[in-house]
């Protein structure tokens, strides 16, 4: 009987280590997933803004850009 108790304690310790490893791995994975989601969201917003600018540029045939350039030239003088 004493061997079973020692064995059971060893198995319990093994399960505890496994639980800790699974918990740490899950936490690290969730943290990484959150960071990647923030990065992708940031890139998507920049991409969407760029596409919106291109759309306005095509729609106005560059008139808006010309106005902005002349305004900046006035500011620079």
Provide a descriptive summary of the structure in words.
With 77 residues, this protein is an all-alpha fold. It has one domain (2-76). Helices cover 95% and strands 0% of the residues. The protein is built from 2 helices and no strands. The protein has helices spanning 2-60, 63-76. The longest helix is centred in the middle third of the chain and has 59 residues, at 2-60. It is rod-shaped, with a radius of gyration of 30 Å. The model has no long low-confidence stretch (mean pLDDT 81). Keywords: Membrane, Transmembrane, Transmembrane helix. The chain crosses the membrane at residues 20-40.
Features:
rod-shaped; mainly alpha
Fold topology:
Blueprint: H1 2-60, H2 63-76
Give a nutshell description of this structure.
By secondary structure, the protein is mainly alpha-helical.
Q: What value does the Rg take, in angstroms?
A: 30 Å
Give the strand content: under 5%
How many helices? The count is 2
The average pLDDT value, as a whole number, equals: 81
How many β strands by DSSP?
0
State the major sheet: none
- Order of helices and strands, N to C? HH
